[in-house]
Amino acid sequence: MSVTADETAMPSAVLSAAPSLSSELRPIDCLGLTKLAEKGKANPASGKVTLRATTITEGQFRNLTFVRDLAPVVIDEPPHLLGQNTAPNPSEAVLAALGACLCVGFMANATDKGIALSQIKVELEGDIDVSAVWGLGDTPDDKKGGFTAIRVKAHLDGEAPREILDEIVQHAIRWSPVAATLRNNVQVSALVAE
Length: 194
Prior knowledge:
Elements: H1 12-17, H2 30-42, E1 54-59, E2 62-66, E3 73-75, H3 90-112, E4 117-128, E5 147-158, H4 162-175, H5 177-183
Antiparallel strand pairs: 1-2, 2-3, 4-5
Helix pairs in contact: 3-4
């Protein structure tokens, strides 16, 4: 069974980025996946790591974030928020991170169940109040910033019953590090570096 999107409603960029539905997605290393899972079960402390990123403002609201030795991730704002529209804004990047994290979980869980998928795609939308304008606009003491709701629509194509695909989706969203970060009350601290 497959769960798919109405392609007529998708932006052309989404359609052109999607792999052909007639082929299987590039598989992950099943043995490597098994070893990672066994390592996590045998020594849960080994999975606790610290991730690092460095963000540098290029000018206006355009920022470059460097992770490991990869090309920088670009973040900007749209014109109505005084940016140059060269990249997603920070809140859109949160949606992108959630979407990517969920897709990783879908692929891993499908692989674990022996299900080959020909497509994994998620549509995300989130409700956010931007009237605080980065702390310069409407900022009453009782106001909470950030997303108030995020909705995810998962599209998985594979030879599996819908119930199994739904199990994969629910399990992945339960254990997604990004989804968990959004659900949890995570401590965030900041200081001016010396």
